[in-house]
């Protein structure tokens, strides 16, 4: 049987980033936290924390923290938890978070722990048991999960007028696209290369800025650092005002999104699922 006080210590160390902060949260000494985790590691026969600083969970440690969070959520749903609000860990893509999903997350029945990852990779977190739910780009469902279609986010390849005048004086050709710098959210972001293949039929690899922030990505597009695939929701005003222009009109990409939730926690997360579905109506109506 698992030692839940030790699991609580492990979860607090990982979440708060230090043994001192975990001890303060639990109302015990740092030595007590260390002893609980050491005892848990001895019983599990595995290292659960790379001590750092900062302390980071091993794969085995992360799985135990996820298990602890699920148990605390289920106990809270039954009115039996005495360890404070449960932690709800969810994988969400940055554009959804910036564009439409954040107000819905207020319906989470506990404290949020968000994993920001590309929609095409968010289901990996579900498969690993590291999150309770995720906004994914694949319908799945991941084994043990339910899936709900949310609609699609439409992206357009846009740039500032000055950028277009500088890099595309003779039109948006394959040759010009190969030379013009683009913006990429991170190394998992394939939207720009997908669009390039769609409009040119070629596999182009232009120089790129890496900007892993949805808001900063759009701001960098406005500033003319490069062209990039931006969601309609985030650039609609810029397109109306002329601050941004489509590189090639009517050549957007639709990215279908799905809400996948682990069945074991689906009932406890029902209010959150309802809020996500309601907020996602903006995707269906777009």
Task: Describe the structure in your own words.
With 286 residues, the chain is α/β, with parallel strands linked by helices. The protein has three domains: 4-77, Arc Repressor Mutant, subunit A (Orthogonal Bundle); 87-150 and 255-285, Periplasmic binding protein-like II (D-Maltodextrin-Binding Protein, domain 2); 153-254, Periplasmic binding protein-like II (D-Maltodextrin-Binding Protein, domain 2, 3-Layer(aba) Sandwich). The protein is 47% helix and 20% strand. Strands 3, 4, 5, 6, 9, 10 and 11 form a seven-stranded mixed sheet that branches. Strands 1-2 form a two-stranded antiparallel sheet. Helix 1 crosses helix 2 (19-26) and helix 1 packs across helix 4. The longest helix has 19 residues, at 59-77. The termini are far apart. The mean pLDDT is 93.
Could you name the key traits of this structure?
single chain, 286 residues, alpha/beta, Arc Repressor Mutant, subunit A, D-Maltodextrin-Binding Protein, domain 2, 7-stranded mixed β-sheet, 11 strands
């Amino acid at each position: 049987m698992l030692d839940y006080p030790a699991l609580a210590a492990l979860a607090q160390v990982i979440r708060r980033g230090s043994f001192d902060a975990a001890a303060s949260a639990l109302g015990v000494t740092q030595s007590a936290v260390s002893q609980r985790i050491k005892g848990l590691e001895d019983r599990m026969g595995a290292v659960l924390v790379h001590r750092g600083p900062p302390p980071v969970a091993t794969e085995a440690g992360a799985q135990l923290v996820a298990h602890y969070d699920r148990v605390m959520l289920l106990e809270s749903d039954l009115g039996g938890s005495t360890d404070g609000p449960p932690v709800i860990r969810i994988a969400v893509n940055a554009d959804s978070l910036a564009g439409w999903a954040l107000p819905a997350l207020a319906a989470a029945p506990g404290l949020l722990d968000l994993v920001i990852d590309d929609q095409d990779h968010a289901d990996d977190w579900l498969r690993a048991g590291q999150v309770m739910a995720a906004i994914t780009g694949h319908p799945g469902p991941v084994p043990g999960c339910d899936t709900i279609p949310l609609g699609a986010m439409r992206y357009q390849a846009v740039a500032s007028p000055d950028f277009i005048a500088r890099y595309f004086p003779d039109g948006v050709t394959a040759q010009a696209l190969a030379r013009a710098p683009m913006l990429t959210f991170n190394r998992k972001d394939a939207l720009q290369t997908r669009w390039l293949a769609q409009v040119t039929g070629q596999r182009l690899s232009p120089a790129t800025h890496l900007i892993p922030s949805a808001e900063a990505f759009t701001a960098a597009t406005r500033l003319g650092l490069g062209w990039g695939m931006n969601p309609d929701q985030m650039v609609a005003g810029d397109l109306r005002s002329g601050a941004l222009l489509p590189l090639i009109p009517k050549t957007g990409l639709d990215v279908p999104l799905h809400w996948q939730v682990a069945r074991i926690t689906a009932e406890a997360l029902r209010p959150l699922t309802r809020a996500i579905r309601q907020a996602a109506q903006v995707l269906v109506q777009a």
